[in-house]
Amino acid sequence: MIELTGTITAVSSLHIGTGKKSGTFSETLGYLPGRTIRGMVGYYLHSNERELFDKIRISEDTDMSKTGVFFKDALPVYVDKNTLTEKPTVASPVSLKWCKKCDNLMEYGIKECNNIVSGKKCLHEGKKVAGFVTKDSFITGKLEKADVKKHIETKCPITRGGHTSPGSDFELSPYHVESVSPKTKFSFRCIVEDEFADNMKRVLNEAGVFAGLGGYRSRGYGTVAFSEIRESQVSDIIEKRASEISEISNLMMVANSPMILMNQDNSIIGFGTEYGNIFNECATKTLTFSGYEGKLQFNLDNNDQVKQLLNEGIARGWSIKNDNKVSEVKPCIGHGSCAEITSNNHSALAALEVYGVGEMTNSGYGDVYFTGGKI
Ligand SMILES: [Zn+2]
């Protein structure tokens, strides 16, 4: 398998529905779910290159060992305001606290900021940070959080008959669309079978312009450009990451996207052993089709509870796939949820980082990364 990475730049405004709607206001997400990118590529291939659509098995929704391509969430790029340096981001772990005053990373178990500001200890308290931060933030202790520029446009429905705005007695009223502003950048990642890598690079460029991403595309939203696309062998990535992970003490797993773990018809919020070890059952499935073996263990506290901190997320695609209404919110494990783990097989952990865990990993769900940290 080959990993393609690159940059997606919004050419027009982008509207990515959140799955929630309140009145006439449509909010946008600040990242591009793998599901939306897969939708764009799938739509383009289905309309223009049916043979490739079938060969690459992009429409496979259930058995992740049968698909030829995995699309991961494209997270916003962090841009340093002074140097204009650009860096990729990850979901901020909910276990970390940052100083309210100086954005310094608070040490584990410490309640007051120890950072020295103008010769004095800062001493302010910490807060959790939601959203997307650089991995450098964990190392340097200085928060680098992606700032996604959004704006709201008010649209007036036009009647089909006269191409005019409706009269005051018309039932449609103006609506408000929030969107990500043009020029915003996101980091793209997909895993594809070797034989399709060249085709996928070409198709991404075409689909970004001719199919588009997200909602209101007939209104001129959704055009994106792909650039700086690089390819690497997945086996090389796993080898390199396994060696990096082996250097980390106090391993912590962080959910980098919403993760769907199903216990029959129920979506489980948590990595625990309450329902048997569903996480490890799902992880084993990923490892089997990727050719790796291994297990991870969740660390327990004195009361035999898994050391974890959870955020609740929304399983948007899962909900629609199972014929639920868009407005019906299905919960799942959310961004930044984390748990302390141990494992003696770092290649297996690296493989989980590449492919993800749980349902619909080909649509970006279940993305994880490993870093150092305590709960
Ligand atoms: Zn501080």
Describe, in plain words, how this protein is organized in 3D.
This protein is globular. The two termini are 34 Å apart. Strand 5 and strand 6 form a beta hairpin. With 375 residues, it is of the alpha+beta class. Helix content is 22%, strand content 25%. The chain has three domains: 2-79 and 148-233, Alpha-Beta Plaits, CATH 3.30.70.1900; 91-140, no CATH class; 236-372, Alpha-Beta Plaits, CATH 3.30.70.1900. The structure holds zinc ion. Zinc ion (ZN) is lined by residues 99, 101-102, 104, 113, 115, 122, 124.
Topology:
Elements: E1 2-10, E2 25-26, H1 34-48, H2 50-55, E3 69-71, E4 75-76, E5 78-79, E6 86-87, E7 90-91, E8 97-99, E9 116-117, E10 120-121, E11 126-128, E12 132-133, H3 136-140, E13 150-155, E14 175-180, E15 185-192, H4 197-210, E16 224-233, H5 234-246, E17 251-255, E18 262-263, E19 266-267, H6 278-290, E20 297-298, E21 308-309, E22 312-314, H7 316-321, E23 331-333, E24 338-342, H8 346-355, E25 368-372
Parallel strand pairs: 2-14
Antiparallel strand pairs: 1-15, 1-16, 3-15, 4-15, 5-6, 7-12, 8-11, 9-10, 13-14, 17-24, 17-25, 18-19, 20-24, 21-24, 22-23
The protein binds zinc ion.
Unreliable stretches (pLDDT < 50, length at least 5) are none
| Name of the CATH architecture of the largest domain | 2-Layer Sandwich
Give the strand tally. 25
Number of helices: 8
Level of helix content?
Answer: 10-25%
> Which secondary-structure class do the elements indicate?
alpha+beta
User: What kind of sheet is the major sheet?
Assistant: 5 strands, antiparallel
Q: Evaluate the radius of gyration.
A: 22 Å
Which strand-content bin applies to the residues?
Answer: 15-25%
Distinct ligands, ions and cofactors found in the model: zinc ion
CATH fold type of the largest domain: Alpha-Beta Plaits
From the spread of the alpha carbons, the general shape counts as globular
**What is the count of distinct domains?**
3
**What distance separates the N and C termini?**
34 Å
Q: Give the CATH level 1 class of the largest domain.
A: Alpha Beta
Arithmetic mean of pLDDT: 91
